[in-house]
Amino acid sequence: MNYTILQELIANLEDFEGETASKAIKMEDFVLFLNQKYLKNLASSKPTIDVNAKNDTNNIGQLVAFLYRYAKGYIKKALEESTLLTLDDFGYLAAVWQQGDLTKTQVIEKNIHEKNTGMEIIKRLIANNLLEQYNDLTDKRSKRLKITALGQTELFKSFDGMLKVSQIISGKLNSSEKIQLFYLLSKLHDFHNPIFLNEKESSIDNILEKYFN
Fold first, then answer.
1. Long-range contacts of 79-86 (CB under 8 A, 24+ apart)
2. Contact by Cβ (8 Å): 121, 92
3. Is the pLDDT of residue 161 over 80?
4. Could you tell me which InterPro entries the record lists for this protein (predicted)?
5. For residue 65, what are the CA distances in angstroms to 47, 69, 88?
6. CATH classification of 83-165 is 3.40.50.150, yes or no?
7. pTM here?
8. What is the pLDDT, as a whole number, of residue 188?
9. Paired residues of 4 in beta bridges
């Protein structure tokens, strides 16, 4: 048996352990470490944007912003024939339909919006008879939302177009690449969601100090 690859794997594991601050090492993280190390040259062999190899963080932020803009354009096309105007309309209706009657605050937080923005979206959906509100039985200060028959009809009509958008956004990634991307995006979501929910009054410097030191 040729032990060269095994020896190289052990060496890489030692490097990974030296770089990670976590005591609980997961196989998924180690695999991503290997991908980064061995596929980095392949990924940057034909760059389509200016890449600063010394600042991967900026590159990630820029590419995430670009991907959002691409997706926004595709979604606009997909909803052209629908009474739903934006991805936000779709997201709010889908959240209420999937998880049952939710409070306004719950719907807004699930869609990662500030309160004022979320309230405007909800107000528009209620005005268009896509959502309706009613009093919370346990908290008189809260209003709960439920999807109307029209809202469900419009939501279902948009599913085909949104599925096509998802296929386009995924590009030509193979199954393994999609799994890796989903894992990374989920990991970022798990990191950012508590900050969004609990640090609304914190400055950017305070967030950096609390979560990165």
1. 79/158, 79/161, 81/161, 82/154, 82/157, 82/158, 82/161, 83/128, 83/130, 83/154, 84/130, 84/154, 84/155, 84/158, 85/124
2. yes
3. yes
4. WH-like_DNA-bd_sf, WH_DNA-bd_sf
5. 17, 6, 17
6. no
7. 0.72
8. 93
9. none
